[in-house]
Design brief:
Blueprint: H1 3-21, H2 28-57, H3 61-78, H4 82-86, H5 88-97, H6 101-127, H7 140-153, H8 157-172, H9 177-199, E1 204-206, E2 209-211, H10 219-241, H11 244-250, H12 260-292, H13 296-332, H14 336-363, H15 376-380, H16 382-408, H17 413-437, H18 442-466
Helix pairs in contact: 2-9, 2-13, 3-7, 3-12, 3-13, 5-6, 5-8, 5-13, 6-8, 7-10, 8-10, 9-10, 12-13, 12-17, 13-14, 13-16, 14-16, 16-18, 17-18
């Protein structure tokens, strides 16, 4: 070997190793220790929605379309407040990073007050949702069943918001197993009730009487099952929050009075995140409404596509939660460089997962829709929509991870503005152009959605790379005692 080769060989080898290290995930164990319980929780919810969709899909396509539209309308309305209730996790995680136990409990209680008010508002909106359903221009039979679903689903709105606030208390302290256990319990209850209520049951005879007999409720049964499961989930979180260890460390069992300064601080940080969620869901709601104007069959096929995407969305949400918690903890501890490190590693994990899932969906594209429907017209759309889902879920995952990291730092205004600009001035007009103006079908609409979410994910990732999120101070320079 020449002297020149001896000099350049190791250098070239080092350069190659440096490039390969860019693809290696560091602190994978720590990230997944936080993400895995949340992923399991969300996967159990995915299973719940899968069971809902599969059972309703066996009733008829109109019921499936109604549950899809009703679920989208309900969640779009909930998104007015979801991230506001969820912002509890940002304040708890940064307080935990500061080792400020007093503020951990204080902000948890303020989050509970926000959640209760938000849930009551949502329950009223759900009851009067029949006033806006004609605006969707969906078939009358779909509108009628959609209202049934929304009215019964909204009965648990307060408990849904409490779940978000209480999850923030647990996850912000890196205690991610309790929300997992509570979620699995609630989802198991929902699945049992779905089987019982959607199709009905003749009951059983004992002591000369018939017990547990119910008529087939269809859409109403699906909504009741989900609501009861949600209530059980929230009650389980409350019970765990009152365990002796937490009572001793945080005095969490002692109610804190609502405090205007703390609530206003949480609202100031959480409201842009809430608007971001509402804008995103509102855009997808308009997307669903436009597809519904084509036919109930195309709307049902789109609902199944959303169900497929939940297998990306839910695990990615687990990674997003982990990234948000780690970012909040490190920012609270005064280590923004470490927060950025965790953000980059979480991006890598999310990318690998999304690419692997895309391959699986594409390989199984001819069979996936058969899980949810036996309607030949719906199944004919399945292979194309599965490919669209494989493309879409990667860009959606990038958007979610970026939003979670920025929210953990309290940098919520930028994500709101990006979402507003791209959803309402890009995604919705593009969907209208494809479906209404061009007369396109559901596949073309989903590919257009992928373009919009690509742009959104890229801009949020650029915000992370800029490092401007490091400058946020959610506590305003003072500590609440």
């Amino acid at each position: 070997m020449t002297t020149e080769q001896q000099k350049t060989g190791p250098t070239g080898d080092t350069a190659l190793r440096r490039k390969l290290r860019l693809f290696v995930v560091r602190d994978y164990g720590e990230i997944m220790a936080l993400a895995t319980p949340t992923i399991l929780t969300m996967l159990s919810q995915t299973l719940m929605w899968t069971v809902d969709t599969a059972l309703i899909g066996r009733v008829n396509s109109v019921s499936l379309a109604a549950v899809g539209l009703g679920g989208m309308l309900t969640w779009a309305t909930y998104s007015l407040f979801n991230n506001l209730s969820r912002i509890t996790g940002t304040f708890v995680s940064q307080s935990h990073g500061r080792q400020d136990h007093q503020n951990v409990a204080h902000y948890a209680w303020q989050g509970v007050y926000i959640a209760i008010i938000a849930g009551l508002v949502l329950q009223v909106l759900g009851y009067y949702s029949y006033l806006v359903l004609p605006w969707t221009h969906n078939p009358v039979e779909v509108q009628e069943l959609t209202y049934v679903y929304i009215r019964w689903r909204s009965m648990s709105a307060v408990f849904t918001q409490l779940i978000f606030a209480l999850m923030g208390f647990f996850q912000g302290r890196r205690d991610v197993r309790v929300p997992m256990y509570a979620g699995i319990i609630g989802n198991a209850v929902n699945i049992l009730l779905d089987v019982w209520l959607i199709y009905g049951w003749s009951g059983f005879e004992a002591f000369g009487q018939t017990w547990l007999a119910v008529p087939a409720m269809g859409v109403k049964g699906a909504a009741i099952g989900t609501s009861v499961g949600t209530v059980i989930n929230a009650l389980a979180l409350i019970v765990w929050a009152l365990e002796p260890r937490l009572r001793e460390k945080y005095n969490i069992h002692k109610p804190r009075r609502p405090q205007f300064h703390a609530i206003s601080r949480m609202v100031r940080v959480g409201l842009p995140a809430a608007f971001e969620g509402f804008i995103d869901m509102g855009g997808f709601l308009m997307f669903t409404i436009f597809i519904g104007t084509i036919s109930a069959v195309q709307l049902a096929a789109s609902q199944i596509t959303i169900q497929l995407l939940s297998f990306s969305f839910m695990p990615m949400w687990g990674l997003t939660t982990a990234a948000s918690v780690l970012t909040g903890n490190e920012i609270g501890a005064g280590r923004p460089d470490r927060a950025a490190h965790y953000g980059r590693q979480t991006y890598k994990v999310g990318t690998y997962y999304s690419l692997a899932l895309a391959v699986v969906i594409i390989l199984l594209r001819d069979h996936l829709f058969q899980i949810f429907s036996n309607d030949p017209e719906v199944l004919a759309l399945g292979a194309g929509l599965a490919i669209a889902a494989a493309v879409f879920q990667y860009f959606d995952g990038l958007r979610m991870l970026s939003s979670g990291i920025l929210q953990g730092a309290g940098d919520t205004v930028y994500t709101m503005l990006v979402t507003l600009g791209l959803m309402w001035f890009g995604f919705i007009p593009l969907t209208w152009f494809i479906i209404v103006y061009q007369g396109g079908d559901v596949f073309a609409a989903w590919m257009g959605a992928s373009v919009a979410y690509l742009a959104q994910g890229y801009l949020m990732w650029r915000r992370f790379e800029s490092g401007k999120w490091r400058e946020r101070n959610i506590f305003g320079g003072e500590s609440i005692k």
